[in-house]
């Protein structure tokens, strides 16, 4: 069939909105009509050329919501008309990773996903002249229709608005999950969140849910302060306003160091500050941000010898088919908020504006509605 998509033709260039051809779902696959998609910083990271796994031409986008329009042979858990959220971290419930309660990183289709193809090694997308187009993170939600493996779709309730719950496909789940699943923050904790964007605000929202006493937010952009306060930030620090050592400043502000720190910037120098601002003896620092090809983290081993813990999280440690429908319920029941963070709504034709808004630091989440 023919559908409309924003195609990343090459790194560093704006997306090109065009008609593309999409083949129907093969065995174990499902075709989804995408109704809405958020634009995450990871899409920008890949489009910029900083992603070592970035391949072109590709259809980016991994934060979507939509409706099943066709199922391939052997699909049993989904039917036409089901509402779904695409999962860049699938949940096959059978691989060694799914069977190990210590991780959410299902590996059933990870290698083909990283190569931009479906599990059978081929792409369903091509240009109208026949040139193949690659999938992205197994999702490609910057297309009005996409094909995905059944194990990479979470079935969600039908009364939830697509243009809000698409954000649960990455930002909301990543931020809240980093607090609840990865750090397992306790009531009364002190925390520092670096980067108050689409992910960091959800870390703050998760910290409030978990009952943290102190939630320090750090961002170079003072315009991010008001929204972060609305979600529960208790103290704001702009590194540009700190004259001395940033670690010492944060250690003093948190009464000796934070119980938990979170990097949601992707900057490796910030990751070091986050680790070193964690409390001696027990502080844990969680890396969420994705760093460019070649970047490496560093600290004195003594920081770890003296009890700080450095860890990371992908998709907030969530098992998508199990956890995502629950997070949709939390939103529908008013336990968590999403609407204020969706600062801009765009048409697919204007998707590049969403990237411009992100570059200028003017948006939290831009959502494309088809
Ligand atoms: P965003 O652009 O909305 O927010 C980033 C924020 O960080 C901005 O407010 C920016 O001003 C701030 N910032 C940048 N450099 C800073 C610095 N040196 N000090 C303080 N603040 C700084 O991006 P986002 O969508 O929230 O994504 C944040 C990061 O998380 C990205 O690296 C993204 O790729 C990554 N991410 C990871 C996962 C995961 O599963 N691990 C999931 C989603 C996003
Ligand atoms: N391809 C990059 C890494 C990108 C990355 O870390 N992706 C996160 C999700 S970011 C969502 O916005 C993730 O899930 N990672 C686990 C995985 O298996 O990809 C690189 O550096 O190679
Ligand atoms: Zn994302």
From TrEMBL:
Its cofactor is Zn(2+). Transmembrane segments: none annotated. SUPFAM superfamilies: GroES-like (SSF50129), NAD(P)-binding Rossmann-fold domains (SSF51735). It holds the Pfam family ADH_zinc_N. Residues 27-121 form the Alcohol dehydrogenase-like N-terminal domain. It catalyses: S-(hydroxymethyl)glutathione + NAD(+) = S-formylglutathione + NADH + H(+); a secondary alcohol + NAD(+) = a ketone + NADH + H(+); a primary alcohol + NAD(+) = an aldehyde + NADH + H(+); S-(hydroxymethyl)glutathione + NADP(+) = S-formylglutathione + NADPH + H(+). Residues 198-330 form the Alcohol dehydrogenase-like C-terminal domain. Its EC number is 1.1.1.284. The keyword Oxidoreductase applies. One of its GO terms (biological process) is formaldehyde catabolic process. One of its GO terms (molecular function) is zinc ion binding. It comes from Jannaschia aquimarina. One of its GO terms (cellular component) is cytosol. The gene is flhA_1. Keywords: Metal-binding, NAD, Oxidoreductase, Zinc. Belongs to the zinc-containing alcohol dehydrogenase family. Class-III subfamily. This is S-(hydroxymethyl)glutathione dehydrogenase. The keyword Zinc applies.
């Amino acid at each position: 069939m023919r559908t409309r998509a924003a195609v990343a033709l090459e790194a560093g260039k704006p997306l090109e909105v065009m008609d593309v051809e999409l083949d129907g779902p093969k065995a174990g696959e499902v075709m989804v009509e995408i109704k809405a998609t958020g634009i995450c910083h990871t899409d920008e990271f890949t489009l910029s050329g900083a992603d070592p796994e970035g391949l072109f031409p590709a259809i980016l986008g991994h934060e979507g919501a939509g409706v099943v329009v066709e199922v391939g042979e052997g699909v049993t858990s989904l039917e036409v008309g089901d509402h779904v959220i695409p999962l860049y971290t699938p949940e096959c419930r059978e691989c060694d990773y799914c069977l190990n309660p210590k991780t959410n990183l299902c590996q059933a289709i990870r290698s083909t996903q990283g190569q931009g193809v479906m599990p059978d090694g081929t792409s369903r997308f091509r240009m109208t002249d026949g040139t193949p187009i690659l999938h992205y993170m197994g999702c490609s939600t910057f297309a009005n229709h996409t094909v995905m493996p059944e194990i990479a779709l979470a079935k969600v309730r039908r009364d939830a608005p697509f243009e809000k719950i698409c954000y649960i496909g990455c930002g909301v789940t990543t931020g809240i999950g980093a607090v609840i699943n990865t750090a397992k923050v306790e009531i009364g904790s002190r925390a520092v969140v670096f980067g108050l964007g689409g992910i960091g605000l959800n870390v703050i929202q998760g910290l409030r849910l978990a009952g943290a006493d102190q939630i320090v937010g750090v961002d170079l952009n003072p315009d991010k302060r008001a929204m972060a306060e609305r979600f529960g930030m208790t103290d704001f620090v702009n590194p540009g306003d700190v004259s001395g050592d940033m670690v010492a400043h944060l250690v003093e502000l948190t009464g000796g160091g934070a119980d938990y720190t979170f990097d949601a910037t992707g900057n490796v120098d910030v990751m070091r500050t986050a680790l070193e601002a964690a409390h001696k003896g027990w502080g844990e620092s969680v890396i969420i941000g994705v760093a460019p090809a070649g970047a490496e983290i560093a600290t004195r081993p003594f920081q770890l010898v003296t009890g700080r813990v450095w860890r990371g999280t992908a998709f907030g440690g969530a098992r998508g088919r199990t956890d995502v429908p629950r997070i949709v319920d939390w939103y529908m029941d008013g336990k968590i908020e999403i609407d204020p963070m969706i600062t801009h709504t765009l048409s697919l034709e204007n998707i590049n504006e969403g990237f411009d808004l992100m570059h200028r630091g003017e948006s939290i989440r831009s959502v494309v509605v088809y």
